[in-house]
Amino acid sequence: MELDPTDYQAVLDHARADLVTREAGAHSAEVNVPITNVSAFSPGYDPLRDQPLIADSVAVGAGIRQQVVIEKETTTKEKMTIQEKEMRTSQRYRTDWAPQVPGSAPRGRRQRLGLAFLACVLIIGLTGSASAGGDRDESAVRALGDNFAKAFVQKNAELRASLFTENGTFVTPQGDFIQGDLAMVKDFGSEAQAVNGNTQAAFSNYRIRFIKPDVAVADALLTLHNVTGPDGSVIPVIPVNFFYVASRHGNQWLIEDGRAHFAPAPANSMTSQK
């Protein structure tokens, strides 16, 4: 059976036109289009001539499909990159350029300044209160010694004993140890004979240290002037080192323990007494 050259050329032109049409459609719709018009059963099919053409057409179609897939993947990656940039830009905008209510910044600064000022006032107030409380307590501890000296000049043994706690202790300059109100009143009463109209007593050189807020240690110098000695002579000056521990009981400070020792001085009948 012979193939008419005219029919063969018409079939070949038709196959080429159909291939171009389908390639264009595949490119626009991004779909794979199989070639079915030209096959071994098509009229005028020549294996020697048409097989290379079909192979080329399939290769071209595959290349187009691969290009379409690559372009699609590239487009998808570009879209993802753009979306990530937009997200980062949006977050940066919300963080750095968040809209503020007009006047909120000055108001915030004023509030911070107000809080700082209030904190300073509170700190100053607390410091002042603590300092004032410490001064009052120190004055109260100092007053114990001053009242002890006044009560000595006034020959008031009860007043001197009331400056101590109920079971307070005291060591006299002669080294006698006494404890409790009754013992103190008795011992202090016997000292009244040393006081005369010219006798004076005063504390000085106070050194006060607070062990706790309600416990203090005081060290001072008690100076006695014109004291009558055991032999009846008047002693011009008798220095006494006076040490005591005081504690606060409610709003009142009292002596827990007191120690009196004659300070170095010219010998006299009082200091030489054993």
Over the alpha carbons, how many angstroms does the gyration radius reach? 58 Å
Quick one: overall form? rod-shaped
Structural class assignment: alpha+beta
For the largest beta-sheet, the strand count, sense and barrel status come to: 6 strands, mixed
Predict the CATH topology of the largest domain: Nuclear Transport Factor 2, Chain: A
Write up this protein.
This protein has helices at residues 5-29, 47-96, 104-153, 157-162, 181-190, and strands at 164-171, 177-179, 200-212, 215-228, 234-249, 252-262. With 274 residues, the protein is an alpha+beta fold. A 6-stranded mixed sheet has the order 2-1-6-5-4-3. The longest helix has 50 residues, at 47-96. It is rod-shaped and about 170 Å long.
Descriptors:
alpha+beta; 6-stranded mixed sheet; 6 strands; Nuclear Transport Factor 2, Chain: A; 24% strand; 2 domains; 274 residues; rod-shaped
What's a quick, concise take on this entry?
The chain is of the alpha+beta class and 274 residues long.
Give the helix/strand layout.
Layout: H1 5-29, H2 47-96, H3 104-153, H4 157-162, E1 164-171, E2 177-179, H5 181-190, E3 200-212, E4 215-228, E5 234-249, E6 252-262
Parallel strand pairs: 1-6
Antiparallel strand pairs: 1-2, 3-4, 4-5, 5-6
